Automatic annotation (TrEMBL), chain A:
<dbReference type="InterPro" id="IPR017871">
    <property type="entry name" value="ABC_transporter-like_CS"/>
</dbReference>
<dbReference type="Pfam" id="PF00005">
    <property type="entry name" value="ABC_tran"/>
</dbReference>
<feature type="domain" description="ABC transporter">
    <location>
        <begin position="24"/>
        <end position="257"/>
    </location>
</feature>
<dbReference type="InterPro" id="IPR050166">
    <property type="entry name" value="ABC_transporter_ATP-bind"/>
</dbReference>
<comment type="similarity">
    <text>Belongs to the ABC transporter superfamily.</text>
</comment>
<dbReference type="InterPro" id="IPR003593">
    <property type="entry name" value="AAA+_ATPase"/>
</dbReference>
<keyword id="KW-0813">Transport</keyword>
<dbReference type="InterPro" id="IPR027417">
    <property type="entry name" value="P-loop_NTPase"/>
</dbReference>
<keyword id="KW-0547">Nucleotide-binding</keyword>
Automatic annotation (TrEMBL), chain B:
<feature type="transmembrane region" description="Helical">
    <location>
        <begin position="121"/>
        <end position="140"/>
    </location>
</feature>
<feature type="domain" description="ABC transmembrane type-1">
    <location>
        <begin position="83"/>
        <end position="267"/>
    </location>
</feature>
<feature type="transmembrane region" description="Helical">
    <location>
        <begin position="201"/>
        <end position="229"/>
    </location>
</feature>
<comment type="similarity">
    <text>Belongs to the binding-protein-dependent transport system permease family.</text>
</comment>
<keyword id="KW-1003">Cell membrane</keyword>
<keyword id="KW-0812">Transmembrane</keyword>
<feature type="region of interest" description="Disordered">
    <location>
        <begin position="1"/>
        <end position="22"/>
    </location>
</feature>
<keyword id="KW-1133">Transmembrane helix</keyword>
<dbReference type="InterPro" id="IPR035906">
    <property type="entry name" value="MetI-like_sf"/>
</dbReference>
Length: 278, 287
């Protein structure tokens, strides 16, 4: 699939994505941890099918918490998460096809890179030989096919993160949740992975929720940016980025791009300014 | 994506060196690792020999190493028989302790109610001195051998159990989240996540339990005071003491020490082999 020219497959332009049916809806979500921290307060958010949504906000504003709640990890204190289009299993749980990239690489240190990426397939009963092709394809996407037999401790921080991304991609999920996946990477690798992620998104029509600190990254990638503020964590602004896809260097150097960046920065500043005691 | 390959290809040659661990020890250091302990041993035996001859120590108080060696050779049939008995009890007890300890630890990890109900008794097992319960066990057990086995098991069980239980509890929460996200069953989570994560803890428990099983096998035999063909090293030590056959006592003691060191060595090696690719404890720090 890596040979397909990106401009031939554009089933989801940003404009059509924004109008996609809602795939997941957060309905007045609040989350209070047992130590009393209010991580999220009354957060509502609807994400449409095929959208690329970035959650942008200062550290500690509850981005990771929101992402975990979307994934069904940890109950919200109040509020509901709905998956209107997904089928439900016998226990009434939605059968979501989710890929999750955690903020930390979260690899099993006792298993090789191959086995780590194989894990999601293995848990669904795929044997090593049956999974081999897909695992290697996922590793190729992140450029780590030569390291299939290495152990995580033999990799650099950025390489571990790429393994973690490969593991999330290997199941070809409909929804991809990514928690600052590229924060530990150098600028060049990061840009490459940004481009690759965009291309995969255009190609497969995934829905992506992407957490980031970086204004530039969020503008470059997203069809919509959700800006959050801390203490308590909440959504304070939204910005839709209507630039066409495929995006590339020409978008990154355009005035439209810098305009979006300025708008996002201003929102973010007001998010931080809303907590000037920080 | 093919466009990404360039970065990784460029990075590969430097990074590949890291992929062969354990090759970093210089040959001279490896030789020293053998030479230093051997020299130390020879020096100690030499000192012992010198002391007994220079001060004319009577051999019923402290026999020289030559006498002990002689006794080891002459009494080998008796001693080896006793060693075999002690070894059998030790390893049988250790084996049962491993299986039982791991199984009960897994049981504890499955339900906090089981844990709540049983943990006081696990602590009681641990804190009661084996010598104190040995007389009771001797009464209840069908044979002396069985009693010794139970005593040794009681002692070896706890470190395996408590370490494994701790290990099963210490699983990385993010990895647990990951398994939950991919719909892993309890069984899959146990096999693919909790047990491997608990392995270093289990192995630490095993190393302690190995030595303790031997100690308990000997202590229990002292308490039981059994005699005859089925008796182990402890009885031979007591017997040698009564008969003032001190060289044989030393020989038996040496066998015990050797066994203990061997058990420790084997369990450490096992631990190293199982962990050398991934766990910090088995890998040299390399920055
Ligand atoms: N397990 C926990 N127990 C208690 N408080 C927590 C826990 N996890 C997070 N918090 C608190 O919830 C708030 C939100 O945390 P979260 O990890 O979601 O922030 P974040 O936006 O992802 O930050 P960052 O960008 O630094 O990753 C923080 O104030 C944090 O202190
Ligand atoms: Mg976070």
């Amino acid at each position: 699939m890596s040979t397909t020219a990106p401009n031939l497959v554009v089933p989801h332009s940003a404009a059509s994505a924004a109008h996609g049916r809602p795939i997941v809806r957060l309905d007045h979500i609040s989350k209070t941890f047992s130590n009393g921290t209010i991580a999220l307060k009354d957060m509502s958010l609807t994400i449409g099918e095929g959208e690329f949504v970035s959650l942008l906000g200062p550290s500690g504003c509850g981005k990771s918490t929101a992402l975990r709640i979307i994934a069904g990890l940890g109950e919200a204190t109040t509020g509901r998460v709905e998956w209107p289009t997904m089928s439900h299993d016998a226990a009434g749980k939605p059968e979501r096809e989710i890929g999750f990239v955690f903020q930390e690489p979260t690899l099993m240190p006792w298993a090789t890179v191959f086995k780590n990426v194989w894990l999601p397939l293995r848990l669904h009963g795929l044997s090593k030989t049956a999974a081999r092709e897909r695992v290697m394809a996922a590793l190729e996407m992140v450029g780590l096919e030569k390291f299939a037999d290495s152990y995580p401790r033999e990799l650099s921080g950025g390489m571990k993160m790429r393994v973690s991304i490969a593991r999330a991609l290997v199941t070809r999920p409909r929804v991809l949740l990514m928690d600052e996946p590229f924060a530990a990477l150098d600028e060049i690798t990061r840009q490459k992975l940004n481009d690759d992620l965009l291309r995969l998104w255009e190609q497969f029509g995934w829905t992506i929720v992407f957490v980031t600190h970086s204004v530039f990254e969020s503008v470059y990638l997203s069809s919509r940016i959700v800006i959050m503020a801390a203490r308590p964590g909440r959504v304070i602004d939204e910005l839709s980025v209507d630039a066409p896809h495929p995006r590339g260097i020409s978008f990154r150097t355009s005035t439209a791009y810098s305009d979006y960046c300025r708008q996002a920065s201003e929102s973010l500043l007001s998010a931080i300014g809303a907590n000037d005691h920080l | 994506m093919s466009s990404m390959d360039q970065t990784s290809v460029a990075a590969a040659p430097q990074e590949e060196k890291v992929a062969s661990p354990g090759g970093g020890i210089a040959p001279s250091e490896r030789a020293l690792r053998i030479i230093v302990p051997v020299v130390m041993l020879v020096a100690l035996v030499g000192l012992w020999e010198w002391y007994t001859t220079a001060y004319n120590v009577p051999h019923y108080i402290l026999p020289g190493p030559d006498l002990v060696a002689q006794s080891m050779i002459n009494d080998w049939p008796v001693l080896s028989q006793a060693l075999l008995v002690t070894l059998k009890i030790t390893f049988a007890a250790l084996g049962i302790a491993l299986v039982g300890g791991v199984l009960i630890a897994i049981l504890f990890a499955q339900s906090k109610w089981i844990e709540l109900a049983l943990s006081p008794y696990m602590v009681i097992l641990q804190v009661t001195p084996v010598v104190a319960v040995a007389p009771l066990i001797l009464i209840y057990a069908p044979s002396t051998q069985a009693a010794l086995l139970i005593c040794a098991w009681l002692v070896a069980f706890f470190p395996v159990f408590s370490n494994t239980a701790q290990g099963l509890k210490s699983t990385d929460h993010n990895l647990l989240n990951l398994f939950e996200l991919y719909g892993a069953s309890r069984w899959q989570t146990l096999i693919h996540l909790k047990l491997p994560a608990a392995l270093p803890f289990f192995l630490a428990g095993l190393r302690i339990a190995g030595g303790l099983a031997l100690i308990a096998a000997v202590v229990a035999e002292f308490a039981a005071g059994s005699a005859g063909a089925g008796s182990g090293l402890a009885f031979r030590i007591l017997e040698s003491q009564y008969r003032l056959n001190i060289p044989r006592l030393f020989a038996a003691l040496l066998l015990l020490c050797g066994t203990g060191v061997a058990i420790y060595g084997v369990t450490s090696l096992l631990s190293h082999l199982l962990l050398r690719r991934w766990h910090e404890s088995a890998i040299r720090r390399e920055n």
